[in-house]
Structures are given as structure tokens and as C-alpha cells.
Amino acid sequence: MDTVRTENDDLLSELLQPLRLTGVFDSRWHVSAPWAIEGDAEQSCAVLHYIVEGGCWITAEGHAPQELRAGDLAVFPTGTAHRLSDQPDRQGVPLKAVLPERQPGTSGEIRIDGSGPRSRLLCAGLHYDASAATGLYKALPWALVLDGSQVGREPLLRDTLRLLAAPDRPVGPGDRLITLRAFEMALVLALRPLLREFAENPASLPVLRHPGVSRALVMIATRFAEPWTIESLAREVGMSRSAFTAAFRELVGEAPARHLTGRRMQEAARLLGETSLPQSAVPQRVGYQSAVGFHLAFRKWFGVTPGEYRAGAVSAA
């Protein structure tokens, strides 16, 4: 049992390690019933809704409506299209009709004056680097909901959300970066209770129910520098190459070779952007015996060479 828990902890930590936001658009909603707003699917963008006052319903095609009350938090990890409304069957107006410009680094406001109950929400689009989104992250449920009591058991999350939702949120030098990092922390803190749930109940995430695929994910996450091939990964988890590849693709959403490359590229980007390790030492640290092979793979993945990536990271800092 302890071995299973350790492996699940290692696997689930993969969700958090590469998660870095590149930009945030946040908005404050002041709405009175009747109201309903339809949000489009967002690419490389998580969506967050925090209910400050009142309540609402979230609905999406193919999923049962969920009611949110004051203090609840809903996160859409992969930006699934959904509707927010005062009633689950209410037809809505497109979000772009009430917030036509939603550029990262800016804020907005929605006001809908009706005669019914009033609600206040903090909503945000959290843009992340698509190349850093792991297959496991993409396999998360369409919506993750923490009720007010769960949020309350995470005091740092609760206080961060309240500060971000405050109408008199401090504004000054560095405000854009501070806001970005505050939302990033909120997203990570929101995922933490979910990680505990998954560790205690692996069946709640389908990929954890498959011993071979989940074990392979742990190996890729923690032993990416080893000279893995698809054959050796499959052999290590006791499966044939074809069965392993098919199960991995179905549960993770991408081929095992791409997932392995992605993990190696995440670590390479971290080493280049956050450490002073010589560039020549990076390939071997991330599982490449050939510097040329690493250079080609890195450029294909990120669109720039390792040297250009490091130069850009240094200038950004």
C-alpha cells in the first residue's frame, strides 16, 4: 500500500512541477438574475471562477449542471466551453459580446442589472505554455469544484482569492507580475486538494486505474534521463509494445514517445532558464546522448534553439 501511495504521489506531483502561467485576464462580475453567459473553449488556458457573493450554475455539453454557492471555486483546467447562469436552463449571450477584449495582463468588468438575486464573481483566464502541459494535466476532469468548506481548509488559497476579488485590490509597480504569480499560486493551491483525493482514491482518475500506464508515467516523470525506448518502457511495466502504446495513448491522450520527449524538454527548459548549468551539459542531463539530436529535438519542440531560449530567459529576467 505504501508503495502504491508513493508512486501515485510521484505521478500526481507531475501536474504541478511544470505549471507556469504566461498571462492572466481577470474580470469581476456584478450580475442580477436573470443572466447567462456562454464561454467559448479556450486553448492553452485554464479558467477559474470564484463565487464571492450569491451563486450560479455551470453547465457544459455532455455534463450534468453543477450549482455553485458563495465561497465555492470552479477550475476548468483545459478551458472547456461552458455556461454560467442564474438557472441551469437559461440561454446565454456569448462572453465575447460582453467582454470583447480579453488580452492577458488586463482586467475587465461585467454588469448585468436584473430584478432578481444578485451575485458577484471573480473570473480569470489563466494562459499557460502549451508545451509544458503534461498528458496527465490534459487528462484532468473538465471541471474541478471546491466547495466553500474545502476552500476554507486551504487558508492561503482562500485569502489569495479574497484579495484578488477585492474591488480595491492594490495597484502599483509590478502589479501585472504580482497578479500573474498570485493567480498561478491560486491555481496550484486549488489543485492540491484534488491531488490528495487522487492519492487516496486512484480510481477517481482513469489513468491511475491502469497499473502499467500509471507506472510508466512515474518512470517518465522521475527517470526521464535514462535511455528509454518504447520497447524498454513496455517491457519494464510488463506489457507488449503494441498494447502499451495503445493503452497509453487512450488514457494519457498522446503517444508515449511524445510524452517522454515533453518531459525531457520541460527539464531542459528549466535547466536553461533557471540554472547556470553549461549548455553542453544539458543534453545528457535530460536523456540525450547526442548533442545534435538534443538540439534538433529542442528546436522542433520550442521553435528556438537552446541558446536562443537561454538568451531569452536571461533577458526576461
Notes on the protein architecture:
Keywords: DNA-binding, Transcription, Transcription regulation. It holds the Pfam family HTH_18. It comes from Streptomyces ficellus. This is AraC family transcriptional regulator. Helix content is 44%, strand content 21%. The chain has helices at residues 2-13, 95-98, 135-138, 148-152, 155-165, 175-200, 211-222, 230-236, 241-252, 256-274, 282-285, 291-302, 306-316; strands spanning 21-32, 36-39, 45-53, 55-60, 63-69, 73-76, 82-85, 93-94, 107-112, 118-128, 144-146. By secondary structure, the chain is an alpha+beta fold. α1 packs antiparallel against α6, α5 (155-165) packs antiparallel against α6 (175-200) and α10 packs across α13. The strands form 2 sheets. It has a 6-stranded mixed sheet. Strands 5-4-7-2-8 form a 5-stranded mixed sheet. The mean pLDDT is 87.
- Topology order in helix (H) and strand (E) letters: HEEEEEEEEHEEHEHHHHHHHHHH
The count of DSSP E runs of length 2 or more, i.e. the number of strands, is: 11
What kind of oligomer do you see?
single chain
Shape type: globular
Low-confidence stretches: none
- Our Rg estimate from Cα atoms comes to 21 Å
With helices defined by DSSP (H or I, 4 residues minimum), what is the helix count?
13
Task: Give the termini distance in whole angstroms.
Answer: 44 Å
- Could you report the average pLDDT, rounded to the nearest whole number? 87
Which structural class is indicated by helix and strand composition?
A: alpha+beta
| Helix residue percentage | 40-55%
Organism: Streptomyces ficellus
Keywords: DNA-binding, Transcription, Transcription regulation
Protein name: AraC family transcriptional regulator
Domain HTH araC/xylS-type: 214-312
